[in-house]
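Chain A, query sequence.
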Amino acid sequence: MLEGVIRSKAQTTPVPRLSWTPLRRVAGALLSVVFATSLVGCGLAVPTDPDGTLAGATGGELRVGVSPDPGLAEDDGDTPSGPVVDLVSDFAETINARPDWTTGSEETLVGMLEAGELDVLVGGFTDQSPWVDCAGMTRGYKTIEGADGRSIVFLVPLGENAFLSELETFLDEEVGS
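Chain A, predicted structure.
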């Protein structure tokens, strides 16, 4: 009989159940805020340039290596010309920079890029470039005038992701992907 009374009370007094789903969502949101705040507090921005390529070029000098390639980049004297040269000149304007041109072979220019002497390389570089271990590269752009079906890329220093992101954003707007 006592057993029936206990069972009866248990059935008439429902115990509130805690749902974990809303708690998990709140906890996840709080952790995200804490993580994001810690990144901002540490001065980290994503993407970053460990060597400051974008900051160094903005409002100053954009050091450009040009590897001549017929239809894309020509070395006609003091200032190179061609569609990829024009694109870099236009990009430099968007960051208020003045291009400083260096013409040379791919190997020489990639060595200068690795040594921190250049900010970007242009020419007939494609997404199949053998320099992938030595330089960062933009996405391939087949719609650049003079590409002749090739997927043209621009090379940048390894790890300079803020600079790469800014350059790709510009190229996406100008020539698509």
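Residues 20-41 form the longest helix (22 residues). Strands lie at 61-66, 98-103, 120-122, 136-137, 155-156.
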